[in-house]
Amino acid sequence: MLLARAPPPPPLALAASYSTNPERALRIRSTPSSRAAVATASAAAKPAASSRFEQKRKQVASVANPLVKHCVKLRLSAAYRCSCRRLLLVGLAPILEMCRFELDAIDYLLLLDGVDVPEELREFSGDVVFVSAAVMKKVSGMQSVDSTEAIAVMHMPRHFRDLGSHEDGDALDGLFNYPKRILVLDGIQDPGNLGTLIRSACAFKWDGVYLLPACCDPFNEKALRAARGASLQLPIVSGTWHGLHELMTKYNMKMMAGHPESSRDASKGIHSLSKELADSLLNESLCLVLGSEGNGLSSETLQACELVNIPMEGTFESLNVSVAGGIFLFMLQPKYQIDSRILTP
Length: 345
Description:
Layout: H1 11-20, E1 27-28, H2 41-54, E2 57-60, H3 66-76, H4 78-84, E3 86-90, H5 92-102, E4 106-112, E5 127-131, H6 133-140, E6 150-155, E7 160-162, E8 181-186, H7 191-203, E9 208-211, H8 221-227, E10 236-238, H9 241-251, E11 254-258, E12 270-272, H10 275-280, E13 286-291, H11 299-304, E14 306-309, H12 321-331, H13 335-343
Parallel strand pairs: 2-5, 4-5, 7-10, 8-9, 8-13, 9-10, 11-13, 11-14, 12-14
Antiparallel strand pairs: 1-2, 3-6, 4-6
Helix pairs in contact: 3-6, 7-8, 7-12
């Protein structure tokens, strides 16, 4: 499977220990003195709210702190992320993007010392931990903190499914509501490509992403960075071909796979991607499979799917999979997305 179920210590208990007894791992930052009361009740309420927020502030200066070790393991280990259902989101921009729709998913917000809490995060009810530059570098894996002012420890999205032993359609109930477009990734191991494809699928309003075995972890730090928050918004499933067949059957979905025209491993005809082909598929439910650049499509994909290629001029055999995927996702986007674009002035 994509995410191994490995034996790291249960981090839920670890995270709980931070919440129930934070003094053991975090040194509480002193609360600033209250401002003088003003005449109006509305003005008096602001210092009170600020004081309550300040009481949640904590500080970590040592890279040996247990919270720092927990965060580093979240960044480096897919098995650890899977076991505790937590992930690390690095950078203020993706954090703010995610906070627009799921602020409660954050356990801890790590901010670089001296950085003000962003206005968009003032309603955050969890712990705000101010960290030294050394800690920020350690947790983020970056050589510089110039562009890394914030890190969030957060729950994995509720719309992520690792099917594991639940290889039936019931495991996907509530995740997809009669999907019209599903992107299937077959052995995509480069996290930058995988994250970019998830971002493109989200941009063109596809209904979800299904990851076949040998794909990299969608919550890998590089994949998250490339997805720019899309992997926290779009339903993602990690499963096998058996689970995918269940999905196809349940929703009566057509299977197509992107394939280079010049490849010799295609034993059947290949469609050319065109407006006419896209128009003919507008009212059909579709799974689009994209394979890795190195190994191409698996034998299961070649057997199960109709093949389609992007016609190109010149001597180039193929495009980078994230570039080709963007073209496919745009051309084959769902009908309601096309209709909404046409109706928008």
